[in-house]
């Protein structure tokens, strides 16, 4: 039997921990064939993003046309799109992108906004209405809703507010809130539930968000129902964090490891 094909529309992380490099790794380890449309190049390592070079939106669409003309894409994940023009260009394709998982990469790990706020509105108006799942982290959900997000209830309220964009499912990820558990709020079909897993104490957490969204897309491509896909992606991220916890790759936040099939 041949694998399902999945597409990531994302930026390159030269340090290998996040971005399309993390997505392709998660695709392979979750049984799907990965294709990649590159939106932005980052000069990045485990400690910082030093520079960003955007791919022109017209070349993003040229890559999209090439992939979609030939390959049987069964799910799509978007990551760092980096400009309003690119978000709007991808949004133009969105009605024909199956199982679209949108990970809105808007802030760096210090919570600093990476792009002008016109990019936020392009996500809200253009892309979210077509998404099967959107996966903002705490800082992104806060930026997009204007809400202060501190408690579980705040996460649930932000997820519910973002559902008004028309997204099929909203996950407000709580990796930015260390505790005994890693807690995410999931809005789906009118109600909110929480995903919970034990907190993994490690500095090697670069790429958790990309890995969570890419794994969800890989599972949706294999016809796993959305709520099950989120539960399984959550377990996969936990296992990947545990596998990489003792690694020392880079001086900052290192990458996630490779779980085996029995880990998650
Ligand atoms: N230390 C941890 N232990 C267990 N789960 C974690 C940990 N850190 C993050 N997670 C989980 O990983 C997933 C990704 O969430 P997170 O909030 O980290 O995304 P992100 O901010 O987009 O990623 P990044 O921190 O890499 O920028 C969520 O399910 C979150 O709960
Ligand atoms: C090119 C690129 N894309 C995305 C992220 C954020 O990734 P994450 O939220 O998983 O750390 C990143 N640091 N670099």
Can you walk through the features of this model?
With 264 residues, the protein is of the alpha/beta class. It has one domain: UDP-N-acetylmuramoyl-L-alanine:D-glutamate ligase. Helix content is 38%, strand content 22%. It has 8 helices and 9 strands. The chain has helices at residues 19-29, 57-70, 84-93, 117-127, 138-145, 152-163, 208-221, 226-244; strands at residues 5-13, 33-44, 49-54, 73-78, 100-102, 133-134, 169-172, 181-188, 191-198. Strands 3-2-1-4-5-6 form a 6-stranded mixed beta sheet. It has a 3-stranded antiparallel beta sheet with strand order 7-8-9, with helices on both faces. Strand 7 (169-172) and strand 8 form a beta hairpin. Helix 2 (57-70) packs parallel to helix 3 (84-93), helix 3 (84-93) packs parallel to helix 4 (117-127) and helix 7 crosses helix 8 (226-244). The longest helix has 19 residues, at 226-244.
């Amino acid at each position: 039997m041949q694998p399902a094909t999945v597409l990531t529309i994302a930026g390159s992380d030269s340090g290998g921990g996040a971005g399309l490099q993390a997505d392709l790794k998660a695709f392979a380890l979750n049984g799907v064939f990965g294709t990649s449309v590159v939106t932005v190049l980052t000069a990045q390592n485990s400690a910082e993003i030093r520079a960003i070079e955007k791919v022109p939106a017209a070349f993003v669409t040229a890559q999209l046309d090439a992939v979609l003309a030939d390959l049987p894409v069964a799910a799509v994940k978007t990551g760092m799109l980096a400009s309003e023009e690119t978000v709007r260009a991808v949004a133009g394709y969105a009605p024909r992108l199956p199982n679209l998982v949108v990970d809105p990469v808007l802030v760096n790990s210090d919570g600093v906004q990476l792009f002008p706020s016109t990019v936020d509105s392009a996500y809200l108006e253009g892309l979210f209405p077509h998404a099967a799942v959107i996966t903002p982290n705490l800082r992104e959900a806060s930026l997009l809703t204007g809400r202060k997000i501190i408690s579980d209830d705040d996460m649930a309220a932000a997820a519910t507010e973002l559902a008004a964009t028309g997204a099929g499912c909203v996950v407000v990820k709580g990796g930015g809130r260390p505790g005994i558990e890693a807690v995410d709020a999931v809005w789906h079909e009118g109600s909110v539930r929480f995903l919970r897993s034990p907190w993994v104490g490690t500095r090697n957490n670069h790429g958790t968000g990309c890995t969570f969204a890419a794994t969800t897309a890989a599972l949706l491509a294999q016809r796993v129902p959305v709520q099950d896909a989120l539960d399984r992606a959550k377990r996969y991220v936990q296992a990947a964090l545990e596998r990489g916890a003792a690694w020392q790759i880079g001086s900052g936040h290192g990458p996630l490891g490779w779980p085996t099939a029995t880990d998650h």
